[in-house]
Design brief:
- The complex is a heterodimer of chains A (308) and B (510).
- Chain A is mostly helical.
- Chain A has twelve helices and two strands; from the N terminus they run ααααβαβααααααα.
- Helix content of chain A is 71%, strand content 1%.
- Chain B is an alpha/beta fold.
- In chain B, the strands form five sheets. Chain B has a six-stranded mixed beta sheet with strand order 6-7-8-3-9-10, sandwiched between helices. A six-stranded mixed beta sheet of chain B has the order 16-19-20-13-21-22, with helices on both faces. A four-stranded antiparallel beta sheet of chain B has the order 2-1-4-5, with helices on one face.
- In chain B, helix 15 runs parallel beside helix 16.
- The chains are: A mainly alpha (308), B alpha/beta (510).
- At the A-B interface, helix 7 and helix 8 of A face helix 2 and helix 3 of B.
Chain lengths: 308, 510
């Protein structure tokens, strides 16, 4: 593989990794508040079908993204209600959400199969900056959704680590009883973060169907939601590290496309992201042990004030 | 506000939990400028009452007045707004966050961006006022229990607490840290604050409080001025009967050797030598007390005997049979009872019921098992009998153990461990954290085992307890037994010196 081939692969890894990035950022926020949402796959696929459908009927991809965010938020709201208000098992609720999303999207999307979108979301090169050699192509020659993710990473990182809201979110995820005793509304924070996770997962799905593919294919998320959950762990619940992980997986996805023409079995290639997932999780556990940081201590545990 | 308006007044508070009345028409008054102790046994309703004042629980009946004004406290946020702060027994801190981050959590009036920066100066100033040395950028997990408690008090003061509730504040502290805390409590009272201090320890209540309110089984027994009362009177109010401060120890003929350790060496969790060639005999009908400062090998000693830690050198015998490096089940089946140090994590399964916990060691014996099945009738009957015999306070035998108080959990563990006449009882800190009533009960149970011919190894940090119960006292220092003395002739000074590693030829090199 010569330099040119390598470089185009690197450039392709960014849009390929963008859905992972959005979904992972969302899951990081949900998990930081103590809510494990295994419904990412379901929220993404619903975002994909709703985004595609709205874009198709209105001709406006931005309305499509807005509708996808709303769809993700609504699904997340179900999970929030079941796991925060009803205090049900979050694993079951999340799995149910994934199955629900996959099923419903298949039903809703049946009529979109094989339909092309009338509009495309195109790259918007940033004047002057995009002319810088290498860096220009790497950072300043993308579509608006990618740019938004570039902005979101530092914003969400700063919000989480250096603001009142961020301290509240992290405290609720680590020790909700403490946060409650200090006057933080645990339920509100958890609802907020879970729904925000749904918004980002919805956008992640819509990116696949409106920008990346662009088409509706049943089950087109193909496990991306699960990879986002693994990336959340790899990222050690930090938005900054999510960026690295997302593009790493974006790279693997690109690699799959590049290796297939060389005669490597597509079935084998399809396992690549999951092999990498296992490797990445192994790396993350080592790091967790070394640096005394780990998953939010109250992750997955429902909170109730009068229960001891 | 004058002295006639109490800072806090709670009238006829009733709080019911499923199966129990935690507070039964409790009336409680605390004044500005006083240290007011709330005394009672575990489960008497002290913490419940204060959780109501702090807005964590809602009373089923009753009224609360703060500085003479009737208030309804829906949540801790309301309580904080009324100038009430609470330091819980288990600290309400986020361990992975810094002191400053913990301090600003939920604190009104801090900026949205970089809030932790805004309170650093206040933290340093308060820290100086009370001579605390708290670094606002330290992570909570780096701090000792005493330092964490200071962060908790600091948090309350930052929120403008005029009334500070301390729930069993000394339970996690060393004696030195406790003395410092008492000085701070006095200082805060002198500043005109109200300090409400939940405790079941008579000595500290006598030492630090101005007035005492005693609770028993959810009711107020009375409120007295500390200077007009005595530990005896308080103990009687707390327990509802005379408490024996000196136990009656019958003379027992010492029997054959039950437990024998020969040159036992073992490592601690960091793979460093924790026990160094320990040799010790414990006879039937004898209590051997292990005295020593925590961390000198006591924990490891208990674990090698009960089969929880491998012996790397040396041998252990029980009734002449070698049990070195056998597993806990094998050793347990041979009549070794283990009352572990960490009773909630090692002594019980919190989510299982009282009955299930009582048969944990015996569920596979013919008494409770029919082939693959449990004889549930026999289990229930056994549990009901033990609950009665050991006075375990629980709504039913099917109640999960996690809902029981510490004293009742300890009674349950003893009920299980002593159920089938053990040969050897290994008791690690059996009375730590218990109130006087439960403490007396546990001590009597150990003495009864001695009379019935069991050998008892008692590990305790309470030297008075060791001297009172034991026939012989072995002092541990640096993983060795540095001296064994007869308890009746023991000289506290000499034992103290051995505990500190002085005065012993054997340890001169270490």
């Amino acid at each position: 593989m010569d330099w040119q081939v390598f470089w185009t692969a690197v450039l392709a890894a960014i849009p390929a990794g963008t859905p992972y990035l959005y979904a992972t950022l969302g899951e990081i926020y949900a998990e930081r508040s103590g809510i494990l949402n295994l419904g990412v796959e379901g929220m993404m696929i619903m975002g994909a079908v709703v985004g595609f459908g709205v874009t198709l009927s209105t001709g406006n991809p931005w309305l499509g993204f807005a509708a996808a965010a709303l769809a993700g938020a609504l699904l997340a709201l179900i999970h929030a209600f079941v796991s925060i208000t009803l205090r049900a098992n979050q694993i079951i609720s999340g799995l149910a959400l994934t199955m629900f999303g996959l099923g419903l999207s298949g039903l809703l999307g049946r009529r979109y199969i094989g339909t092309p979108l009338p509009v495309r979301v195109r790259e918007v090169p940033i004047p002057i900056l995009s002319d810088i050699p290498l860096v220009g192509d790497l950072l300043f020659n993308h579509d608006p959704i990618v740019y938004l993710s570039f902005v979101l990473v530092p914003v969400l990182g700063f919000l989480l680590f250096h603001t009142r809201l961020g301290i509240s979110i992290r405290s609720v995820g680590e020790n909700p009883a403490t946060a409650d005793a200090m006057g933080v509304n645990v339920f509100r924070v958890r609802y907020l973060c879970t729904v925000w996770g749904g918004v980002l997962a919805g956008i992640a799905g819509a990116y696949l169907s409106i920008v990346y593919a662009p088409a509706w294919i049943e089950g087109m998320t193909a496990g991306a939601g699960w990879i986002a959950i693994a990336l959340t762990i790899f990222a050690l619940w930090s938005p900054y590290r999510a960026l690295v992980g997302a593009y790493l997986f974006g790279g693997v996805k690109v690699l799959q496309y590049r290796l297939q023409p060389l005669g490597v079995s597509p079935n084998l290639l399809n396992t690549l992201p999951f092999v990498l997932t296992i490797l990445v999780l192994l790396m993350a556990t080592g790091e967790v042990r070394r640096r005394r940081i780990g998953m939010p201590a109250a992750l997955g545990i429902p909170y109730s004030r009068e229960e001891r | 506000m004058g002295a006639e308006t109490p800072a806090i007044e709670m009238r006829n508070i009733v709080k019911r939990f499923p199966g129990v009345i935690a507070n039964d028409h409790v009336t409680f008054t605390a004044r500005a400028g006083e240290v007011h102790a709330l005394l009672g046994e575990n489960g008497a309703g002290k913490t419940t009452l204060m959780n109501i004042l702090y807005g964590l629980y809602h009373p089923d009946e009753g009224d609360i007045y703060v500085h003479g004004r009737r208030v309804t406290i829906h949540s801790p946020r309301d309580a904080i707004a009324l100038g009430i702060g609470m330091v819980h027994q288990h600290f309400m801190l986020v361990h992975s966050h810094t002191v400053a981050e913990n301090a600003v959590l939920g604190l009104a009036g801090t900026p949205f961006l970089r809030p932790a920066q805004s309170v650093r100066e206040q933290i340093v100033a308060l820290s100086e006022r009370y001579r605390w040395h708290i670094n606002p950028d330290a992570y909570i997990w780096q701090l000792s229990a005493g330092e964490q408690q200071r962060v908790e008090i600091l948090k309350a003061l930052l929120r403008g607490a005029r009334v500070l509730i301390l729930d069993e504040p000394t339970s996690m502290l060393t004696p030195g840290e406790a003395r410092q805390l008492f000085a701070v409590m006095r200082q805060m009272a002198a500043e005109g604050r109200t300090v409400i201090f939940i405790s079941h320890k008579l000595e500290e209540v006598m030492e630090v409080s101005d007035r005492v309110t005693v609770l028993r089984r959810g009711r107020v027994v009375g409120t007295v001025a500390t200077r007009d009362t005595s530990p005896h009177e308080l103990a009687r109010m707390m327990v509802g009967r005379e408490v024996l401060f000196r136990l009656e120890k019958k003379p027992v003929q010492r029997g054959e050797v039950v437990l024998r350790l020969e040159g036992v060496t073992a490592l601690n969790d960091l793979n460093l030598p924790a026990l160094k060639e320990v040799s010790l005999d414990v006879h039937a009908g004898e209590i051997v007390g292990i005295a020593g400062v925590a961390g000198n090998g006591q924990k490891e000693l208990v674990e090698v005997i009960t089969g929880l830690r491998p012996v790397i050198q040396g041998r252990i015998f029980l009734d002449g049979e070698e049990i070195t490096n056998r597993d806990a089940r094998f050793i347990g089946k041979r009549g070794v009872a283990h009352v572990p140090e960490d009773r909630v994590h090692m002594g019980v399964v919190p989510n299982l019921s009282v009955a299930e916990n009582l048969i944990l060691k015996y569920y596979d014996t013919p008494s409770f098992a029919r082939g693959w099945f449990l004889d549930l009738q026999a289990v229930t009957t056994f549990a009901q009998q033990k609950v009665k015999e050991y006075q375990i306070r629980t709504p039913t035998v099917h109640t999960p153990v996690k809902l029981l108080s510490g004293g009742n959990i300890q009674r349950l563990i003893l009920a299980r461990e002593l159920a089938f006449q053990p040969r050897l009882v290994v008791a690690a800190h059996p009375t730590s954290g218990l109130d006087v009533g439960a403490m007396e009960h546990v001590r009597q149970l150990l003495l009864r085992q001695r009379e019935e011919g069991a050998a008892i190894l008692l590990v305790s940090e309470d030297l008075d307890e060791v001297l009172e119960l034991s026939d012989r006292v072995a002092v541990m220092f640096g993983g060795r037994i540095v001296g064994v003395v007869d308890a009746s002739e023991a000289d506290v000074e000499a034992i103290g010196a051995m505990m500190a590693g002085l005065n012993t030829t054997a340890e001169a090199a270490a």
